[in-house]
Amino acid sequence: MIAFDMLIKHTAKLSISFLLILILFQTRLLSSESLGIEIDNPRFSEKGLDNRLYEIKAEKGIQRENNLELFIVKGKLRTDSGTWIYINAKKGNFNQIENLIELSGEINFYTDEQDRFRSDKAFFSINDDLVEFKKNVEHARGSSIIIADETKIKNNFNHIVYKGNVSTLYNLD
Q1: Which of 22-26, 55-59, 148-152 has the highest mean pLDDT?
Q2: Which residue in 37, 63, 90, 122 is deepest, having the highest Cβ count within 10 Å?
């Protein structure tokens, strides 16, 4: 009977040890998956049937499931009317399922037609043809400047809506 009790206690200790090792292994495995895969110079582009074209690239990217975290982001896209819009930002996150790019840090959108948008945060929905600027938004065209809390741009940069506290400095050239 004593030998049987010792065997049960020893088996219980081994089972608990095995369970702890298994939990530790799973924790390490999950933490290594959350680190992601580092990609040098990621680049993605598309030319649609509607003649819209875009290209987004970065110096470095980290792939985590369906999200690609981007560092030092540059890009360009062509509107239906043929206007090129250029993009620069310190960081970005590309959600591949929703085709949505979230940008942060010294964001600049500018065109060859002297439009320049700056903000601290922006969302660019490729599918919806929508750009939303949030926080410290400044739109300059020539020497005229519009400052707003938020700005939404849609319809190939033809429809611009300013929200929140909006101030304008308009200069006639």
Answers
A1: 148-152
A2: 122
Quote the pLDDT of residue 154.
85
The 8 Å CB, 24+ separation contacts for 99-103 are 99/125, 99/126, 99/127, 100/124, 100/125, 100/126, 101/56, 101/126, 103/73
pTM (2 d.p.): 0.69
90-95 contacts at long range (C-beta below 8 A, 24 or more positions apart): 92/56, 92/58, 93/67, 93/68, 93/69, 94/44, 94/56, 94/67, 94/68, 94/70, 95/66, 95/67
For the chain, give the percent of residues with pLDDT over 70: 76
How far, in Å, CA of 31 to CA of 105, rounded?
A: 27
Shared domain for 108 and 135, answered yes or no, is yes
- 71 and 106 belong to one structural domain: yes
Full residue range of the structural domain in which residue 8 is found: 1-35
Does residue 128 sit in the same domain as residue 91?
A: yes
* Token output for 83: 């206007």
Which pLDDT band, with edges at 50, 70 and 90, does 32 fall under? Answer: very low
* Same domain for 154 and 112: yes
